[in-house]
Predict the structure.
Amino acid sequence: MRLDQEERAWLAGTGGKARQWAIEHQMRVGTYLGATDLVPVSQAHIMADTESLGPAGVEWLERLAALPEAQRRVRIPTITDPRGTDFAAAARLKQQPWMLDLERRAIAAFESLGVLMTDTCINYQTIMPAVRGEHMAFGDTGVVIYSNSVLGARSNFEGGPSALAAGLTGRTPRYGYHLDEHRHATLLIEVAQTPRALHEWGALGALVGRLAGDYWQVPALLGIDRVPSSDELKHFGAALASYGWVALFHMIGITPEAVRREYVAPATMSVRTTIGPADLQAFQQSQTGEIDAVDVVVFAAPQLSLIEMRAVAALLDGRRATVPLLIVTSPQVKPDADRLGLTARIESAGGLVLAGMCFYQSYAREMAEANGWSHLATNSAKLVNILGGYGYRPMLLSMEQCIDAACGRRIGS
Amino acid sequence: MTHYQAKSGMGARVRGNALVAKDGFSARYDLDRARGVFSRPDHKLAGRSYVGRVLVLDAAKGGVATAWMLHEMAARAMAPAALVLNRVNPIMVQGAALADFTMISGFGQDITAAVPEGALVEVDPTGDTPVLRVLSIPAVTDVTE
């Protein structure tokens, strides 16, 4: 890989051990993936919950944090994905003290590195959305796919170490979705009926993801007959990235790089398949099973927008949740939800509003064991996909059905 | 001795018994990392231990957490010996780079169909061309040429 003068100096150690590690890491990754140089990035977004880090990862961060200040501080705005707890609710979730201790240590280390603890996976709705063509080092698959596809930004999936390296150098290896040649459609899919509810958008993302099934595939969708909302694209993209490991999609006539079909897909490319209402229904049924009651209802993955929070509050008005009902949002949305009375409406109906965490990043297996949770309802297809490996039996329902289930109504009745 | 050349590789040369499946790999989605077993019910290796094995799988998949989790697994000596994949994604490369983990990927054929389950293999990313060598095949394995 070609390095400029400043990058060579960091490699030689003149910027200190943190930046030397960062540039070495970026060279290893870039060399493996065919990058010829580094590209400047304007933001980094770090996924680093302590379930993923473990004690070893936290100790590794603490060693960086112990370096002299001039050597350890990030050079560009560097923000964080959800953490592994909401400290205010940890006892109710039956999280253990050792989990909270690890979280506190990780937060202290990140703050020492100059990282902004935003703790959100919806930064494109709440912090600073990317601009078309802007190179980023984003580290949550939902953030990457939304920013690439809906906003026209340029980022690969950057795991926590690589996002931190980008924060320290202000650069990232130039491969994959930083390059024009990887941003063209590789498969064309017709959608016969535009989804309506959020969970249907997630189901569509899951089905497209299964067809794509590879990081280097770029699906383009034909037939979406209206401009989807940000929340709809959020659920679609999160599920597509989760089921298919996809980082970029196009919607013909809608997303910025696909205003015209020929901009992203050659005329010779034929439609591989058509996804219709029956496919979406079959997928949802396959994710629901024969269960008629649940142990816990979770709205998360991605964190809820203020608009989603309002919808949940409205569905709960005059009702009472009889099974645990968790609603997870960002630390940026939560104060507005408090100010507008949404939190009070949800919690007076028996829900629990959590901020700055995500359910699956918060020791989901241990929470299940401690609380006796197995059957879980959610309107997030992404959450359904992840939690099977954590021992849950998750099911995908609409937001309305989830609230019904939380209030004790038998599913399907 | 059969060998298979890979397009890319990193890490040290290691030996181990192969655990093979035409399926993906994600530390978050597929594993019970505390017990060291595949835990996703529909994974083809569900219930199997991966600790110390050379995993020969189809593709890297899943979210970004694997970038940290390989490091965490290695620190507890509960990691595979190496990963051998038909296709990688950036997260797996980033995770292997942090953990100094041995990984090779990209073959001229489906590597999961080529390597017999349980075979003793050597993964060697240290030369000009990364290579997987099959050193011996267990007698009980049904190998179809």
Notes: Chain B touches chain A through 40 residues (CB under 8 Å). The mean pLDDT of chain B is 92.
